[in-house]
């Protein structure tokens, strides 16, 4: 899946990010090689690795567009139920 803003890099899924990070730490693959393999920017690869080190696998999840319950209430009714 590509960015809609014209950026030429990919948006990776959680599974792909986790695969990339594990490849970096377990197999000692340099970030430069991962950038080419996954078609992402160096900063995106580096940030994923740093976040994984600090916060674990959940830091790799994309929370864009998530709702946190503010609209989960029952819609207003017309008064007749």
From TrEMBL:
Residues 16-66 form the Insertion element IS150 protein InsJ-like helix-turn-helix domain. Residues 61-81 are annotated as: Disordered. It holds the Pfam family HTH_28. InterPro entries: InsJ-like_HTH, Trp_repressor/repl_initiator. One of its GO terms (molecular function) is sequence-specific DNA binding. Coiled coil: none annotated. This is Insertion element IS150 protein InsJ-like helix-turn-helix domain-containing protein.
